[in-house]
């Protein structure tokens, strides 16, 4: 076991990290610094301070990272239209590189020689935290208690907490809660009934959205203004990136938008069933593709679509700080210089419908060419004949050869 003098712990104040805090003292006999991030999870983060103080912690960091998270992580990802395995909008994945960055920042500030996290040895988060940490400080020591201790269940954690007088807030009825993770982009659910991929999620599990069937009977219209691929205003009112997400989460969630139930392939090799609520992200993806459809060159748009699955996998697997992701981001950001304009959306009972898009400066849509009416000579339809014959040349050669062989 390496000698550790000081460790920075990613600390929520919940059962797992409260046990980890005490365990670090007992096993490593080291000083612990706690770090709690406000990423827009809609829960009070200040109670973590009093809990850490009650356990004797002197250096406590509680940081509001909502704007940095939205501006520097979520918005760049949405410029790429990133979706993992066709459905998942990467809500947990995109938060991990920021947490890793801040853990390393605090380790440097406090002269700590290690960081610690509460991710299990079965999941993706251990990979994301640690790849990020090593990319930013190659020599950092990392403690992952779930890979070291013999506490293998919630009951064993509760027993440890009782033995060491660690205060734990018990859930009503004593039932094990869903494993949840939340930030401005989404809230995720795993465990309990969800461990059976055939079982329908319980309705009272969902927290950020109403059921589509109970959503309002009248549609809501939203107009988003884009500059360089980012939303800068809603219904003409300017908003910061975090404000955009907070407002869209509230509006879309109230209209039953953003629920997802999937089985995904974890990086460590197993399949996992999870449910997600991503109200703002669902709207943002639809709207961004709409404004790009108007303002991006065809081949640029298709190249972005070709790259997107690779980009999404890099984020899902924890490679945000990798040189290949940064290189791809440079290309993606360059493509967004013309992605300016407005998108009008209709939100209704779980559906996001694009009903209008416009760009005064960068639209590539030419009505005089696209029209089904008289185009005043803007497009010569006879030109299509040669175009088709040239593109059919290889098909005609192959077919003629096949016919000759058949008669041969």
Question: Could you characterize the architecture of this molecule?
Answer:
With 408 residues, the protein is α/β, with parallel strands linked by helices. It folds into three domains: 6-77 and 85-177, Rossmann fold, CATH 3.40.50; 180-358, Argininosuccinate synthetase, chain A, domain 2, CATH 3.90.1260.10; 367-407, no CATH class. 41% of the residues lie in helices and 19% in strands. The chain is built from twelve helices and 14 strands. It has helices at residues 15-28, 47-54, 66-79, 96-110, 125-136, 154-163, 241-254, 279-295, 298-317, 323-335, 367-370, 383-407; strands at 6-10, 31-38, 60-64, 114-116, 141-143, 179-182, 187-190, 220-227, 230-234, 237-238, 259-265, 271-277, 341-348, 351-358. It has a five-stranded parallel sheet, with helices on both faces. A five-stranded antiparallel sheet has the order 10-9-8-13-14. Helix 2 links the parallel strand 2 (31-38) and strand 3. The model has no long low-confidence stretch (mean pLDDT 94).
Q: What is the mean predicted local confidence, pLDDT? A: 94
> Rough shape?
elongated
How many structural domains in the coordinates? 3
Task: Give the count of helical stretches.
Answer: 12
Strand order of the largest sheet: 3-2-1-4-5
Question: What fraction of residues sit in β-strands?
Answer: 15-25%
Oligomer: single chain
The main β sheet shows up as: 5 strands, parallel
Helix content: 40-55%
Can you count the beta strands?
14
CATH topology type of the largest domain: Argininosuccinate synthetase, chain A, domain 2
How do the SSEs run, as a string of H and E? EHEHEHHEHEHEEEEEHEEHHHEEHH
What structural class should be given to the helix and strand makeup?
alpha/beta
